[in-house]
Amino acid sequence: MHTTAHIISIGDEILYGQIADTNAQWISQELDAIGIKVTQRLTISDVKEEILNTLKYCEERADIILITGGLGPTEDDLTKPCLAEYFDVDTKLNKEALTHLTTLFKRFKFELTPANKQQAYLPTNCTMLKNELGTAPGMWFFENNTVFVSMPGVPFEMKGLMANKVIPKLKEQFDLPIIYHKVIKTIGIGESWLADKIKPWADMLPANISLAYLPSLREVKLRLTTTGTTKELLIKEVNKQIELLKTYASQYIYGYNTDTIQSAVGDLLNVKNETISTAESCTGGHLAHLITSIPGSSAYFKGSIISYTNQIKKEQLGVSPNTLKLYGPVSEQTAKEMAEGVREKFDTTYALATTGIAGPEGGSKEQPVGTVWIALATPTGTHTKLLSLTKHRMLNIEASSKSALAFAWQTFVQSS
Amino acid sequence: MHTTAHIISIGDEILYGQIADTNAQWISQELDAIGIKVTQRLTISDVKEEILNTLKYCEERADIILITGGLGPTEDDLTKPCLAEYFDVDTKLNKEALTHLTTLFKRFKFELTPANKQQAYLPTNCTMLKNELGTAPGMWFFENNTVFVSMPGVPFEMKGLMANKVIPKLKEQFDLPIIYHKVIKTIGIGESWLADKIKPWADMLPANISLAYLPSLREVKLRLTTTGTTKELLIKEVNKQIELLKTYASQYIYGYNTDTIQSAVGDLLNVKNETISTAESCTGGHLAHLITSIPGSSAYFKGSIISYTNQIKKEQLGVSPNTLKLYGPVSEQTAKEMAEGVREKFDTTYALATTGIAGPEGGSKEQPVGTVWIALATPTGTHTKLLSLTKHRMLNIEASSKSALAFAWQTFVQSS
User: Fold this and answer.
1) Is A29 on the interface with B (CB under 8 A)?
2) Residue A397: closest CA among chain B residues belongs to which residue?
3) Which ipTM did the prediction report?
4) pTM (2 d.p.)
């Protein structure tokens, strides 16, 4: 049915966690975009038996096997001899590969060592894929009704080969369907509650559209995937389902695909030509950081006052000394006055404030670590919300910032 | 010989390239640190046969199998039923897991749905690993002389389980060699220049100590690894080598292991009972966020003014209108006045300021995107530095913040 692929990453530095395997993720995205289903990714050691066993394992399970790594000039790079052994062929000097090597080395004014020259010897059954950006050529094999592709592990060399050589050849060789994904971003509801709420919709989804839940910090993403032959039709079908979904959960949907809660808040402000500022205690700048991570945020974000002391809360934000004495710095009233203070001082339409106990120290029985008040000052009044988070400082900082943005987004949407 | 492990990541969102599998890399690092050799990592689909086949495949090849993902309350999460089927056991209600769930839901004031309650049913042959940070418990199995561990895919939940439950149990169950790593953190010098500078030292390292370069954003980590039977001896040997290293590169070493440039700056301020504040334009709060990510930072950090408009630079930071007119907001003079302004206003020993063009828009021929001025105001005068960074907004924000901290650290160290 589907054309399937396995991705093999070869290298001890990946297995030891010394480097991130960004290649495999990138290849996954590229294959997904042309309708090839990656059914497995494997990371293995640069050891002969491992490579041979894995080639066999993958050949039994996938139509296409993409291999990265293990093609350098040093002795511990075994991919090429293993492929020759696997297919039971010799290697021989490939003239085009040697010409390319010689040109490259001349250009960089390096001498071509025997170790380097070795890179121009290729298994006799492969098609050479010229690597414009490096010395190790890519190799394309078609054996036992399976495509094997070997590429260097250096990301930009691999990407060049994929884009210019491998993807076009795969499109030529396989009859590929069109796959269309759309991710729906929700906030303000947990995964299981959302699942309960939208069950009638999920149960009625057509068989050719599949639904996945992708939870992340303080939000849940829903991914719809569908396969067919006409992209326009798939887009139409998915959008129709999203319209139906909205009758169950529209109040939680803040965006799609690459949208973030900070970009959703920014979009709402942009449309109305409104502005925002922040006053931060426990989030310590992270809330402003999320807002300013969006390109063009200077159109609606004016600034922030981070007040890590009571004195700054009083002097810069105008929190009343009485409030601090009566209710303490972590209180609804302090959050309210912080938001109102910065809104007035920075002359913005709205202002968000956070004050809480990020931890790990500083909690009490009445106010444990993770207690956070957020406040949103608006032209028509100030709204507040209490959060009970975790014992972990970084998590509390991130969750408070995201919750503050979600709170603003919900308030904006409800009042419009 | 070695105790070996396989890591299985379950989830279509990884195979489709929609999210990076940061879990597998992190687990690799943790296992490496305790002397367990990761011999393979596999990413597979949330499909029953795939999970069952992969469990069998890994059981034949490794002593330990660590599984992440597929433990949510929704229907597409199959890891638990697959494990029960694989071991041919039933699931039953685990009372401790249910108590934990009930407590969590009460705390968040949510109702426990049947879907949620399902998470407290566990295969009868497993040891429950309490997940303090979420609803899906970890599971530990010991069957056929192999350890199987199932953990949720949410990174902070998985990390909590690994650190508090899995690593201690693995250390107990297996006779692991003693591996001692020490990471030396350097800043202010690129990888190849550092390598040149310390070459005489690296060439003389004893055979039982290996050196790895781990470059990351704006810094280079050096990791020394040694294996033996007596930890004290290993520590002594490694520390001796670090003393020798210092004769080549002491001015770049800001700390070790989990130290960060923000914790190094904080330590220096703490020792002298000094304080700091920030005035941020292009970093938009990220600099304050780095500083406040350190527990106890409220002892030395008073606050920040984030000025995303010229008006706030003038009104709140006291930047002279003439400066803005003559030199513009992205200039050495503006950075200087911002730092001096917030230092005076917040009454701190030091103040750091940033102003620049984060991008992607807003650059010009004279001032391309990535142009950033940083300033450090001190009791004896203000120091400035110009950075020429990239075209990428997030990278520019992060690199500017880190560079500002590195600049402060270098100034503090040189003046002490």
Assistant:
1) yes
2) B293
3) 0.82
4) 0.82
